């Protein structure tokens, strides 16, 4: 006897709900890469570290400027920190698709931007006025621009409803507050390390001269992995046996020349180049995560991130429980032995039991490119099959 139709309807609804609850995070850099005429805007979103901030937000509208419009902004020769403020004024912290632009209540709306969210924008200077003009035109203007709406909507580049909208506007928004000279943040890497339980590591950086490379990379983005003081103290006998250039390489191996938040490390597992990477000397390691635990795997040892010392973009510093040992300087650990068959005598793995096994070239390449083995393609096959099975069960059971 067929089951009641309401139960079938409920089953179908549950399957459809399950298939639509997966949320794909947006990537502003990849989206704009499809539009070469916005390459300059895209480049400076990366240089100013706004791209990462945009990607972390779930509801955002980007007012994009093409290369011609960006040239007028670049000609002002603003510092990278001032340019960040100007571009952050072009990122609205609300969703505005094409349809919503023409449905603004009373024809005008004041909305907050990422510049206002920084806390550096006094008064209403971090807000943008959006006005639906006669004839279908929509104009934009910074609130501190004496009420002038100096830019107009051109076209929509991409819209993912209520997630991200990228709209082209005709020219940069004028704001005296956003363009005010902004001093570079004071981020002294060795001082930060010394005050946060990483003094021994900081002292080695200074003594070797490696600290200059770390300092030079802060503005462009820097991630530091700091072995804690007890770890460094226990490692000193091995460290003293290295030559001066080898010591520098080892210390540089603990830095990545880009900003990588903990969430970014968890979602971008794979091979990472370091400050020590140079031509044939790869000096790389593999980032892996198991839930909330993030590990750094070299061919010699595996270290675990145990805490965050500082996270203030463009600098992030993590504590780790081991010194990272590159294969260029230390003997690679042997691969793990396969489990012995039942009945045979167990053989101990030895002191290198925690060393990671080598990955194949194909697997490494996939990890490096952020390939998700359980991607949307496979899910697209599984979901319809499951859906069909549920329907057939209710119809013919």
UniProtKB/TrEMBL annotation:
Q: Which portions of the chain have biased composition (kind: Acidic residues)?
A: 356-365
Region entry Disordered: which residue ranges? 334-371
PROSITE patterns, A to Z: FAS1
Q: Specify whether Glycoprotein is a keyword of the entry.
A: yes
User: Is Transmembrane helix given among the entry's keywords?
Assistant: yes
The positions making up the signal sequence are 1-25
Quick one: where is this thing mainly located? membrane
**Biological function:** May be a cell surface adhesion protein.
Q: Which PANTHER family match?
A: FASCICLIN-LIKE ARABINOGALACTAN PROTEIN, FASCICLIN-LIKE ARABINOGALACTAN PROTEIN 2
> This chain belongs to which protein, by name?
FAS1 domain-containing protein
């Amino acid at each position: 006897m067929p089951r009641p139709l309401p139960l079938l309807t409920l089953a179908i609804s549950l399957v459809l709900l399950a298939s639509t609850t997966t949320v794909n995070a947006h990537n502003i850099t990849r989206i704009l890469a499809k539009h070469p005429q916005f390459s300059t805007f895209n480049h400076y979103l990366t240089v100013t570290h706004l791209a990462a901030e945009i990607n972390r937000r779930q509801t955002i509208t980007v007012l994009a400027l093409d290369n011609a419009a960006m040239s007028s902004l670049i000609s002002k020769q603003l510092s990278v920190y001032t340019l960040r403020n100007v571009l952050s004024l072009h990122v609205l912290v609300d969703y505005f698709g094409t349809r919503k632009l023409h449905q603004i209540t009373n024809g005008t709306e004041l909305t907050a931007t990422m510049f206002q969210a920084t806390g550096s924008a006094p008064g209403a200077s971090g807000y943008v006025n959006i006005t639906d003009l006669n004839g279908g035109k929509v104009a934009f203007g910074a609130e501190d621009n004496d009420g002038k709406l100096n830019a107009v909507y051109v076209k929509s580049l991409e819209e993912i409803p209520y997630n991200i909208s990228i709209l082209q506007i005709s020219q940069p928004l004028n704001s005296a507050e956003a363009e005010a000279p902004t001093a570079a943040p004071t981020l002294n890497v060795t001082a930060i390390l010394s005050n946060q339980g990483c003094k021994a590591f900081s002292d080695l950086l200074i003594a070797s001269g490696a600290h200059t490379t770390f300092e030079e990379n802060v503005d462009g983005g820097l991630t530091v992995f700091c072995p804690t003081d007890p770890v460094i103290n226990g490692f000193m006998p091995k460290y003293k046996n290295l030559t001066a250039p080898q010591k520098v390489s080892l210390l540089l191996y603990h830095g990545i020349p880009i900003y990588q938040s903990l969430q970014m490390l968890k979602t971008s597992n794979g091979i990472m180049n370091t400050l020590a990477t140079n031509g044939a000397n790869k000096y790389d390691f593999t980032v892996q995560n198991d839930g909330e635990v993030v590990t750094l795997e070299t061919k010699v040892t595996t270290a675990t991130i145990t805490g965050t010392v500082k996270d203030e973009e463009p600098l992030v510093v993590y504590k780790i429980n081991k010194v990272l040992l590159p294969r260029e300087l230390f003997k690679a650990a042997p691969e793990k032995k396969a489990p012995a068959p039942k009945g045979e005598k167990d053989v101990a793995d030895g002191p290198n039991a925690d060393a990671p096994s080598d990955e194949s070239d194909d697997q490494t390449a996939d990890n490096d490119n952020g390939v998700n083995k359980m991607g949307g393609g496979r899910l697209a096959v599984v979901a319809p099959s499951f859906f069909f099975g549920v329907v057939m069960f209710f119809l013919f059971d």
